[in-house]
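User: I need a structural model of 1-deoxy-D-xylulose-5-phosphate synthase from Chrysotila carterae for a docking pre-check later this week. Nothing fancy, just the predicted structure tokens so I can convert them on my end. Input:
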Amino acid sequence: RLRRRPHSMAMLLLLPASAALLPGVSRSAPAFAAHSAVSRANLFLQQTDRAGTNVNPPFAGPRGTPLLDAVRSPSDMKGLTLQELKQLAYELRWETINAVSKTGGHLGSSLGVVELTVALHYVFNAPADPIIWDVSHQVYPHKILTGRRDRMHTLRQAGGLSGFAKRSESEYDCFGAGHSTTSISAALGMAVAHDLRGMKRNSVAIIGDGAITGGMAYEAMNNAAYLNSRVIVVYNDNGQVSLPTGTPSAGGTAPAGSLSAYTSRLIASRPFQDVRDIAKRINKLFPTTIQQTNAKLDEFARGMMTGGTLFEELGFLYIGPVDGHDLDNLVPILENIRDRGGDKPVLLHIKTEKGYGYPPAEAASDKYHGVPKFEVSTGKKLSSPSKTPSYTSVFADQLIDIAAEDRSVVAITAAMPGGTGIDKFGRRFPKRTFDVGIAEQHAVTFAAGLAVEGIKPFCAIYSTFLQRAYDQVVHDCAIQKIPVRFILDRAGLVGNDGPTHHGSFDLAYLGCIPNLVICAPSDEIELKRMTQTVYEIDNLPSVLRYPRGSALGLDVLNDLLGYELTEMPAKVEAVPIGKGRVLRSADSDKEATSRIAILSIGTRLAPAMHAARALTRRDSTIGVTVADARFMKPLDSDLVSKLAREHDVLITVEEGSIGGFGDHVLHFLALNGFLDDGKLKVRPMVLPDTYIEAAGQHEQYEEAGLTERFIEATALKLLGKQKVPA
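Assistant: Understood. Predicted structure tokens for 1-deoxy-D-xylulose-5-phosphate synthase:
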């Protein structure tokens, strides 16, 4: 944790409106009315932390937000005093807490950068000076200060504000994000563009200790010094590399990677630097005459033990570490960096605390990284526990069972142990759990190296994040037939995180690669069986994809999918590779004169079964077969051929984009002559060729046209009995 400094007179400016303020402070806003009840103020200081928040519940913010009310854009902050900036930060922190409590979202990271956000918008001239956030889940305070406060209640909702920086949303969001490690490259490009156009501007990248574990950050820093660019990098070090940090693994429970340990040593070996220390370093960038003048003014300032740092070896002027919650130093330090001479790139290393200023977040293992709606006064999360397990936990439990019997099984995650279930695996098998940080390329090739030596790696990465390691999948695994088992969580549409996190493309971008086995379970039983299946594949790389969210549960499994279970099976067998299954046959519809086949892959099977029931209830002359493909590669050609021969209509349904499963089926049908006589009508149902914005998952699948009623309507249209969904 950050060192706790003694409360100063300036700290009183962080008091909520209910606390007494000392006389003599700025009176430019009503909240700064002077009072003389010093004893009440002292009592408040004993009951609050550095951010002015009660340390015990009930937790509450200020009764009013006079400074924040006056800020419609960053230009409104320029005339504030330093003391007023502190009060603004206090109001902004609680505005963020209250807003996220009503919508859910990424709270902890946003609370950690409140002071930094205030300082950046005070010192720099955005949007002319671009400020680029990485990963940009911490932009809620930024959104509030840049004219979107009145829309925060729509955060991550259908038609509302994005949970990330979004160029189409505001001119202050100069570069969109959602994935990681892009900020320095983007900021460098903007800085060079300014140079080419003869513009004197600042380009600022904010990158955290999680994002900086990705190799692209070092590619950009290596290039920045070479180009002699004035890019400014703010390295936000909060000790939260993975989600959650602290998962037991082969590297212990410390944040993943050597860089975090290195920066921790930097912080431990030297005190936080203040503006006098920083001024001496920046002074060296000015011409000699100015340096000599400044040296006289600062001759009593403390020196700084610089040493050689990794960042300086990359050609940056390294400044830090600096307390990222201390506006007294942060503001003038940023002003010095802004006004520096020369073109040398600068890296400002700040130390912050994720969840800062809200005790429930500070105490949580994940620092309230991503939270549902919650009660502000207690921090209690308001989400109801699901009656069925998540697909993620079903996978994790099955992998643990497999690993208990085979010591060669290991699990790899790229900084997402909680989201992939690898945290659960790590608690059971810490020495066989590997968190590589936000480094998907390394994760894939690291897994390939393990597999070459006879280890059985399960590389668990979100579908959308595996895009970052495409070449490694092809070059390091598929070409060489190395049996890495890719576990793609969050396949399909993911809900409120929106387009940057949808797993829309994996069937398309992986389906074209030879030597891959690709499967997708329709339910939790199939997920357990397919986890066993890919475990047993030792001659090829394999892919198992499944969605975010809760599994179906026993009632649905039995009623809809034909299982006869009293409880979830403890032991399962692998499914035959490349073989699908038929769950419902049109042969059972005795009065049918028209026959439709619905071939699903993944968890669209349940809506397909509902659509089949609706069709046969609607018209007894319609016979419906519903089949579960299970595998995209190898495709069950026997099943597809049978469906094509015995039905008038064939509809494929998938939770993926154009170019995926449906295209593979169409390709097979065309090459084998099933479409030549024009008798078979085929329709692939896929995600539309657009980016689906944040909303609930069901809302998104409705928008995509992949729910029960759209499947039914597609079938009726092909039979000439058109029904258009409302």
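Before docking, keep this in mind: The chain has a mean pLDDT of 88.
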